[in-house]
Amino acid sequence: MATQTYTFAVFAPDYTDPDALGRRLAVRTQHLANAKSLLQAGTLRIGGALISPETYDKPEKKLIGSLMIFEAANIDAIRKVIEDDIYYKTNVWDKEKLIILPWVSAAPLPPHVPE
Questions:
Q1: pLDDT tens across 46-89, in order?
Q2: List of domains in the chain
Q3: From which domain of life does this come (predicted)?
Q4: Which one, of 52, 60, 56, 46, lies nearest residue 9 by Cα?
């Protein structure tokens, strides 16, 4: 019998101190490698960086956080995934503003196809 999974939306804004972008860039390669493995496992369905409204249409975009959609058996599993992420551990994501919510899509997510 297959385990029931649920979908969760995660809003993870970055800290806004002057060193925040530097912390993000210093560990970005590790973060992306982890995201790739989560995608391959089907836990992360889609994710990416949030861009400041002032720079989204400019060549130099200011990264201000992350937005992700996950599937898991429960919200605690997603909280663990987030807390294990290098962005969380190195104070890129603002822990006080991080939001994890159960989410129901108005349209079905495309089926997971492992790479």
A1: 999 999 999 999 999 999 999 999 999 999 999 999 999 999 99
A2: 6-102 (3.30.70.1060)
A3: Eukaryota
A4: 46
The pair of structure tokens assigned to 80 is 């663990």
3-state SS record for the chain? CCCCCEEEEEEEEECCCCCHHHHHHHHHHHHHHHHHHHHHHCCEEEEEEEECCCCCCCCCCCEEEEEEEEEECCHHHHHHHHHHCHHHHCCCECCCCCEEEECCCCCCCCCCCCC
- 96, 6 Cβ separation under 8 angstroms: no
Q: Look at phi and psi of residue 78 and say left if phi exceeds 0, alpha if psi is from -120 to 50, else beta.
A: alpha
What are 54's two structure tokens? 């002032």
Cα–Cα–Cα angle for 24, 49, 26, rounded to 5 degrees: 15
